[in-house]
Specification:
The complex is a heterodimer of chains A (about 140) and B (about 800). By secondary structure, chain A is of the alpha+beta class. Chain A has three helices and seven strands, in the order ααβββαββββ. A three-stranded antiparallel beta sheet of chain A has the order 3-2-7, covered by helices on one side. A two-stranded antiparallel ribbon of chain A has the order 1-4. The chains are: A alpha+beta (about 140), B mainly beta (about 800).
Chain lengths: ~140, ~800
Amino acid sequence: MKHLNLVFIGLVFGMWLATAHGAVSDDRATHQSDHDEDIATLPEVHVHGLPLNKDQQLGPVPTQTPWPSIPASLDGQELDDWMKAMFMVNKDGQATVVVLEPAKHRELTSAGLTALGQWKFKPQMRGDEPIDGQLVVRIHFRR
Amino acid sequence: MVKCPFKGHALCPWCFLLFMLAPMPTEAEQAQPMSELKTITGFVQNEDLRRVPQARVEVKDQEGNKIVEAIADDTGKFSITVPREGTYSVNATLENLRSEYVVLKIGTETPSPVKLTLVPSTELSLEVVSPLPPLQYKSSSETYALSRKDIESLPRGNNQDVADLLYTLPSAAQNNFRQIHLHQEHGGLQFRIDGVPIPDTISSVFTDVISPRSWERADIQVGGLPAEFGNRNVALIDITSKSGTRPAYGSVQMFGGSNETLNPSFEYGGAGGDKFRFYVLNSALWTNRGLDPPTAGHSVFHDQSQRDQTYLRGDYQINNSNNLTWLFLNSVASFRVPTAPGASPDPAFTLPGFTPSPSQDINEIQRENNQYGHMVWRHDLDKSQFFSLAAYIRQTRSTFYEDFNNALAYNGGVANSQDQFALSTGLRADYTNQLTSEHLIKAGAQYDRTQAVIKTRTEAFDNTTGNLVSINEDNRKIGYRQEFYLQDQYTVTEKLTLNMGLRYDLIQAFTKEGLLSPRTGITYAFDKANVAHLFYGRQFTPAPVESVRTLNPQLIGTTAAPAVTQSGTARTERSHYFEAGYNHAFEQTATLQVTGYYKLNRHLLDFGQFGTNPQLVPFNYGYGYQRGIDAAMKLKFTPSLTGQWAVGWGQARAKGLESGQFLLDQNTINAINSRFVFLDHSQFVTSSAELSYTFKERTILTGQMLYGSGLRTGDGTDVNRFHVPSYTVYNISITHIIPLGGPHKLVLGFDVINLLDQIYAYNIGSGIGFGVTHYGEPRSFFGRVAYSW
């Protein structure tokens, strides 16, 4: 029994080490602290489409951002659920939404996707040149 | 005239309790000008929960126009009044930090305070907040919710067993082996993880396969379950489990204390690429009080146990409308069966040349081994149609190792070891369609195959020759279960909802039986503060194939022969279930839920422990009923001071023994056949209460009370005529959060269980199915240290 415990703990710890190492080595964000050196200046104007200093842009600029609402089928239910989606916006400003983490309530994922599908963007700029960009949006539904 | 502090009218009886408990509002609070309805208040904090002064808070409309802005004061608080009703977003910024966007509807009710957390994130974060009607107004059953925060604020935090959490429900009677009896039932709980019903394990009564550490939240329905749910009909514990996220998170925790308890645990959730996420949890437990012992107070003998639990989950997002979830649960445990000193061996059953050990040294051991895995494919056909297909496999094994020579001497010449095994595989499909705004249709089917093996080795003395005989028994059975359901949640008007459904269950194991079960619920919301419901449904509850015992004729003529050699066939319980409930909300401060139920059964299914082997065996009564009233109150005096109170009154009685006769003596059977006897797990009054106070967001003080009037007891002609003494247990807890910068934090906790050191027993070794005495936990101290990031 003790051996089994040790094997399990070793396995889990090994997985953790492997994951942590992999995350750092390929520069994928896994910890909030990984962002410490980022210029995390993504002012709120990104959401509401006001002009930006082009050199500060870290992503495409949303110009129209309708918000999702909680579907009627979940009326009366206590909720604490979220979803995460990524916008891939090309240099012409055309956006594609990709679900990264669906909500546990599928109705919320559906409502979120419907709203996000109506978002409009200005492309990310590098100097005066529009480039392809990405933007991750997390929607937390609470009631 | 004294006025109700919540509604302002003359103090009504329902408000009296709250009036006595709640602090009186100040004059300023009593006056609520109209401008308050349009005022958004809240505070700004860092990730480490420290308040942030001088942050800029902005309110914008849906077109992105800035409506108004303000600067948070030196304590991080802000108050902003918007000019008109509407939907707005609120967010805070400070230098290169920014908060989520909280979306609020400003209307006829004062908005709840907003908490804005500044993070250095490149993600956009949108928070959609919708006011929660104080009452659930569509369900036709008792409903409760347990969030991760609720779990962590209770004594022992998330180191509790599932049973500890459920004891906070009304009518949840405690019993040995961490059993729980809701609505006067023995078992009948259906756990569901992310939409998939989890099959029982042989030993789940005392090994929690589903640790609350892995819970994000649980929504609990007790009683009138819709047609979607069957097989286990008492309550649904619908768990939303944790899953991996970006960025990753994790925690390491050490919990331990009295009875040499040590419980380290570890969890980690993260992502690999854009499509794959994973979550892993492992915990180990060592304690000197594994099972409830037959000795009172702090004395405990031969009760060491070890346990290891693993929870693995992977999610793969194929595309926007398809995803796969894989889940694996593992639990491995070993229990020494607790003993009591002072018993005398019987020389007539002592083997020649063998000197029995003192009774506290009898060495019986039970080992348990459970694994469960499922794979779920979720497919969204369109915005209103959802489909899921789940395949699952479960293996459960429980092995009881007997101390043969000592058991013969102490147990009247009977000793047996047992190995129970079951393998289940199954498929489940569910379809949901929000056909129109009025009709929410659900349909589905499930197929389950369970292969059970029970091997027993019995040692006893031949009644004629006096020689020791060893009898081996090997029972095998394959059970099949199929279920189909169709239901409609029909919103007739804003006030009236009909929950109508039909399900069909078919089993083939010891018998071939089926039942078509209508389920009908009517819920009517008189207004936002008053909701009533009625429910009627048929229920079909088969006995678990892997636990059913049959009479072994080889035992006849030995000291292991049962007093009664009759053995009826295990049947499936068929019931008519009626429920009526009324919910009332005292503004946003409190809700009261009162529910009455009555269940009329044919082939009533019950369980008992027969002998020292810590296993539960099912048997049937011919007729029986359960009835009772539950009341639950949820209180929120202030955002920092919350509480709840629950009480359940009930009875469970039955008449006529149909199966398992060989497990009982003739006097008991005669009593059961002659009158409606109380069932062993029936408890007249059960109550619980919790009060939790959060001081400056970082320190949580919690007190808990658990009361039981006592389970039934009594043997022979007086079987279950009495009850064991009542008890009240008080638990307290303090938890403190130490921010370590960014998302890193340290949580320290200290818990005292059974503060007043009440000596109490769940049962005292008499009554139907109570072969052994079991005492509750004495005063115990525990500490917690958790580091999370």
